[in-house]
Amino acid sequence: xxxxxxxxxxxxxxxxxxxxxxxxxxxxxxxxxxxKWVMDGxxxxxxxxxxxxxxxxxxxxxxxxHVILTATxxxxxxxxxxxxxxxxxxxxxxxxxxxxxxxxxxxxxxxxDLMAEIPTVVVDSLPDGLxxxxxxxxxxxxxxxxxxxxxxDEEYVLMAEPDHIFVNPLPNLAHGDHPAAFPFFYIxxxxxxxxxxxxxxxxxxxxxxxxxxxxxxxxxKKSILEKIxxxxxxxxxxxxxxxETDKAFGWVxxxxxxxxxxxxxxxxxxxxxxxMLQPPWDLEVGRKYIIHYTYGCDYNMKGELxxxxxxxxxxxxxxxxxxxxxxxxxxxxxxVPESVVCLWKxxxxxxxxxxxxxxxxxxxVLLFTSVN
Length: 372
Description:
This protein has 372 residues and is an alpha/beta fold. It contains 10 helices and 13 strands. The strands form 3 sheets. Strands 1-9-7-8-5-2-3-4 form an 8-stranded mixed sheet, with helices on both faces.
């Protein structure tokens, strides 16, 4: 192997400098033109009937939000919390972010070994047997307890989960008293009207007043959440006690409970489809803000999805109940979507300091090229 000539090295350095300069110039130009760091292509659906000028009157004075993460002391929960908190710290102070502080609400009743690493408030779990094996019922109860003792500077909170990873700086998507939420395709109030009328009576209005959401991710005023949370908890427990509702809603029961509780309090959410992406179904990261890795990602070595069948290459959080994915987890096959490559990088190469997923993908492409 011969040594590269000094002229070649200078030309390469100049090329990288010009590419970086052009990228920064483009971003700054967009900021100056639009007054925001994100592009105008972020589609969002607003179910609120109020006019924009009416919404502007209820703008808050403090747009920062406090990130709230509910968790258990199980190893499976711990490694997800550590990864989530790591990437929160990386994007918190980036341009375009409205992130404030961070609190892990530990609903196991006693401190654990992450107390010194992650800001944590310990609350009680539900009494034995009350959750009937559905551990998610502890989530609304944890929020009720945290809200009773919370002293934070931010006016808003972001309700998040351990399997969330911040991939872009997240602004406050709420609009005054109107929270922001992600629309889930499987939350269908209109198709479940018969069941929902048990909890949302006809005199309250049509079931379409119930937003197709869960409680996470949601950015909401703390003062509004204080009103919703006790109702959310009570409805969750009541739904679980009803066999018909329990059978119909299954593992998303608590999500329906939050949506119903919000509607009972007259709270409508602004629905942002770019709030979050969910590999392997969402293929690109783009301008989305959070990766939610709830689904397993199974592929053959041709890069073809084999969902429903364990792949030759796979990433599934449930494969790591006792600890985090290994840092030397094999590379995804060529042909897998960017979102899965990003997920692999964020979960296995935690020391990386650049959270921009496109940068990560660039290095993965280089690595694939060098290997092949």
